[in-house]
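Exercise: predict the fold of this chain.
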Amino acid sequence: MTEPSAGSPNPSVGELIRSWRRRHNLSQLALALDVGISSRHLSFVETARSKPSADMLLALTERLSVPLRDRNQILLAAGYAPRFTQRTLQSPDMHAVRVALNRLLEAHNPYPGFALDRQWNVVQANSAAMTLAELLPSTLREPSLNVYRASLHPEGLARVTVNFAEWARHLLRNLRTAIESSHDADLLRLEVEVLAYPNVQAALASGDDDQYANTQALLVPCVLDLPMGRLSLFTTLTTFGTPQDITLQELCIELFYPANSETEALLRPKNIT
């Protein structure tokens, strides 16, 4: 897969729109009808015979679910100023977001919870999550803790993951889905990296169902053998609704929950040391 801008070093606005339209398997007619313009006009935009207005570009990119980061790129390609900010999480304007993240993560204790950026680097975590992170060597925690590296690297959580083959395939499917929806070059490089791990290659080469896989389970759990006992956890992902800032749109919260009563008992506060 390539990025939206991979067609040429400096793609035109028409090339970018056409690329996103094709990713959604939409014809010019279908997209034009959805945004209330003629297919002829859209054709002229894609072939650089007509310059679209900023409002038209915003309507097209909204229909195509283009990430805010890439909407700015499309506006710039057409000669317009970016419309969407990219504040840091430490920005004063993000105070309410930081408070909400902290409240959500701390309320989730004693179960692990992480706030993640678009490359799945941890930007905030609760104490239960940091307990898991402490199992990792410093090379996987610095300069940043990445969920895919931490989970798949042979020296990371992979070494204590009982159902590694099943869990690795689940993570790789999620990573591939993220790449196909965002066409993010950093995620693509991350995929190349983790696919080169020998344990990941072995998991993919096995082709057989993992011996610990439960075909009756509703969710794929991550089963970890830890000094405190065996934990079986499933995860949920949450994002912010109607974001108008790039950083905010790209943030997600991953919360782990007990998949069985034994894990629930192990994670009760009285059992945490």
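Check your answer against the key: The chain has a mean pLDDT of 90.
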